[in-house]
Amino acid sequence: MDLLQLRYFQTVARYEHISRAAEELSVAQPSLSRTIARLEAELGSPLFDRQGRRIRLNQYGAMFLRHVDRALSELDDGRRALRDARDTGLGRVSVASETLLTITHVLGSYRAAQPRADVRLFQSNAEEMDRQLRAKEVDFCVASQPLIGTHLESIELAREEVLLAVPHGHWLDGRESVTVPEIADEPFVTTRPGHWQRALLDRLFASERLTPLLSCEGDEPGASQDMISAGLGIGLIPAISRRVGTESLVPVAWVHLNAPDCHRVLTLVWNRDAYLSEAALKFREFITSKPFMAHRLPDPRHGRVHHPS
Questions:
Q1: How many percent of the chain have pLDDT more than 70?
Q2: Tell me, which fold does domain 89-157+266-299 have in CATH?
Q3: Average pLDDT of the segment spanning 243-266
């Protein structure tokens, strides 16, 4: 058996679909099928149950996959360790976040503190984050939704209230607070399913046995405030947007939503079985060394973000 067979098997086991695995691996389906067949012959046991074109990982395949995952993971970590040892810098740290605005200033501060670190940033929803951590494509995720798995470790970075943003002149402009039933007929600017704003909106309305009315769905949470200001609807915005003075750039009115658990919890998540470069270890220490929000505080004189010393 060779590494190519093991990587092919790992991909087929993940998809349980030959054509999808072949597409990801950029190989022909017959070639992939023959490779899996040779591996099964060498092991002396079928790894998949086959029903026509459909395949399912069987008990022997699941058992073998656990060992293959560990073996390939160790080899990948060894490759990264050698690369980092050759580098004159600290190595690479890769971070995924649902919205880039959440992490931009933190990464900027870290890069200023560690200029030799190679920093990579990705925008991903919760489902993609889970896949990236499992595949070890990123070192950390700054998640606004729970990422659950026996292979994952996490640290809470911040917990903040989520406010209701409305256009100036809206009937809620000037209100201190509002309940979910009161806004049941209001059009909402929100994100597509998979993002934390949408998950929170659906949960808050479901608790009242209601369904939100949507006027706009997007993939960039940071654009919501602009659309709300333009009068396209109302929406849920984290309190940090108010504190950092973005209301001076994108004018909206802020209202407290009188609903339980109307907040966002930011967590730093990583795969406990993954290799972390020196740059990644220093980033984890940096981001957890002081309150997360302290990395980006508003300058009260100018309404701009500044980084405390």
A1: 89
A2: D-Maltodextrin-Binding Protein; domain 2 (3.40.190)
A3: 79
User: Can you state the angle between helices 278-288 and 100-113, rounded to 10 degrees?
Assistant: 110
By C-alpha distance, which of 200, 182, 187 is closest to 231? Answer: 187
Q: Where are the beta strands (DSSP E) in the chain?
A: 48-51, 54-57, 92-97, 118-123, 140-143, 152-166, 177-178, 187-191, 213-218, 235-238, 253-257, 263-271, 297-299, 304-306
Residues near 24 by beta carbon (within 8 Å), at least 6 away in sequence: 11, 15
Tokens, residue 255: 């209202």
Domain definitions of the chain by residue range: 3-84, 89-157+266-299, 158-264
Report pLDDT for 246: 47
What kind of fold does domain 3-84 have according to CATH?
Arc Repressor Mutant, subunit A (1.10.10)
- pTM, two decimal places: 0.67
